[in-house]
Amino acid sequence: MCACCGTVAESLPITWTCSVEGGARRYFCDDCARANIRGIEGRLDSAWW
């Protein structure tokens, strides 16, 4: 499940992005990752974007 928009996938698609925040893995779908790529690459917690 996408941590941003809640999109659900049967199995984890290889195109989704994984981010570790507070020791927990969070997965983001293609659309959410594209919309927030600067925050992800800057290693900002998703609360900031």
Looking at this protein, list some descriptive labels.
49 residues, alpha+beta, 2 strands
Percent in strands: 15-25%
The coarse overall form would be globular
For the largest beta-sheet, the strand count, sense and barrel status come to: 2 strands, antiparallel
- Overall pLDDT metric: 88
Q: How many E-type strands? A: 2
What is the total number of structural domains? 1
Structural class: alpha+beta
The strand line-up of the biggest sheet is 1-2
**Which spans have pLDDT < 50 for at least 5 consecutive residues?**
none
Helix content: 10-25%
Number of helices: 2
Radius of gyration: 10 Å
Termini gap: 18 Å
Protein described:
The chain has 49 residues and is α+β, with helices and mostly antiparallel strands. It has one domain (1-49). It is built from 2 helices and 2 strands. The chain has a two-stranded antiparallel sheet with strand order 1-2. A hairpin with a 2-residue loop joins strand 1 (17-21) and strand 2. The longest helix is centred in the middle third of the chain and has 6 residues, at 30-35. It is globular. The relative contact order is 0.25.
